[in-house]
Recover the amino acids of this structure.
């Protein structure tokens, strides 16, 4: 059975179509279209009519792509980006009227659980913490505990962090402030106090972009295991914060994530620091893969 899921995030709309049979899930096609709601959002958190039209147009295109490869059902999800919109009802109604699809707006714990079940194979490594770097929020889960109630979704995504400094890139002082804000958020939410992990498993498109920049900076050849050393990540952040050449490597590797990359890197590094991890592994699976698993578990397909 081919099932499609479209994810509405803060910077893009993305499609995954997978052929699912029991525990087997084989990706058929994946598409991504850059649609940044940040560019259409007012200071009061309202997405403009033009932005709504762009979202609807893109969703209709992705639905058509899913149908062309034989998807039997299409599901539309959103995470923190939609939860923060002041005119969510208007956006949701426009999408449903134009496409017939209702948006399943995942709450924080369901989002974290979807990320967890998409990546639970990493539990075999032991002592691993999941961090899905979303736009406005980030999901966190301990692979040794599959209880949804033990998972977190904190408002420390790079889009939220980006709004805390004035220029396009943070300076050294602003980077320190971001680190303090992140560490305080962990303490305030009581995220696994006193726990130490050997590694952080990163998920999401912001993590993908971060690894592309990391691999470019350190001339790392393509590999199925995308691993970053924390010491090198910290040096990369220092370079991105202070170097006049930083725009070149960012635009070359992550043009749509230029504003997100540095706060994403700081979030990943500070998380590793707080929990004592020396390595970070970037997964190729995220909330869409997990949501498909959820549909099967909940028999909604």
């Amino acid at each position: 059975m081919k099932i499609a899921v479209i994810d509405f995030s803060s910077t893009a709309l993305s499609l995954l179509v997978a052929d699912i049979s029991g525990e087997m899930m084989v990706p058929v096609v994946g598409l991504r279209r850059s649609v940044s709601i940040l560019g259409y959002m007012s200071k009061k958190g309202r997405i403009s009519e033009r932005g709504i039209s762009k979202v609807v147009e893109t969703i209709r295109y992705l639905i058509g792509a899913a149908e062309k490869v034989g998807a039997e059902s299409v599901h539309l999800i959103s995470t923190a980006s939609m939860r923060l919109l002041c005119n969510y009802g208007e956006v949701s109604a426009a999408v449903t009227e134009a496409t017939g699809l209702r948006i399943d707006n995942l709450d924080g714990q369901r989002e974290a659980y979807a990320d967890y079940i998409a990546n639970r194979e990493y539990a075999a490594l032991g002592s691993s913490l999941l961090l899905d770097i979303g736009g406005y929020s980030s999901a966190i889960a301990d692979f040794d505990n599959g209880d949804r109630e033990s998972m977190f979704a904190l408002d420390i995504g790079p889009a939220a962090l980006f709004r805390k400094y004035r220029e396009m890139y943070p300076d050294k002082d602003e980077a320190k402030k971001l680190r303090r804000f992140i560490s305080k958020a962990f303490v305030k939410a009581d995220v696994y106090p006193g726990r130490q992990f050997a590694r952080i498993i990163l998920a999401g498109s912001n993590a993908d972009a971060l690894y592309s920049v990391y691999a470019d900076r350190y001339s790392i050849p393509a590999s199925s295991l995308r691993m970053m050393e924390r010491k090198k990540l910290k040096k990369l952040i220092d370079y991105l914060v202070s170097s006049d050449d930083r725009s070149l490597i960012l635009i070359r590797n992550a043009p749509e994530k230029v504003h997100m990359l540095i706060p994403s890197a700081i979030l990943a590094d500070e998380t590793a620091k707080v929990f004592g991890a020396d390595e970070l592994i970037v997964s190729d699976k995220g909330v869409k893969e997990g949501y498909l698993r959820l549909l099967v578990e909940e028999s909604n397909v």
